[in-house]
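Hi C.,

You asked whether I'd gotten around to modeling the 80-residue construct. I have! Everything is below, sequence then structure, no commentary in between.
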Amino acid sequence: MKDSIHPEYFDTIVRCACGSEVQTRTTLKDLHVEICSKCHPFFTGKQKLMDTAGRIEKFKRKYAKVKSTTSKQEETVSPQ
């Protein structure tokens, strides 16, 4: 193997916003993450809804119109 082409690895602690810490080795000295396996909804089974800029409400309004439009179309078509 060639010398001086590999990155330097450090023992580091990865810290999550929930307070969880995991010790590992990485090329970064300090590593902070917002979400980890202890607080991620997929792993915990708890769903957290994060609505940024009203996106969920916008989605619901958009598809509520589509649903009501299809219902009206079905009512206007009568079997003969």
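If it helps when you're writing up: The chain has a mean pLDDT of 77.

Thanks,
B.
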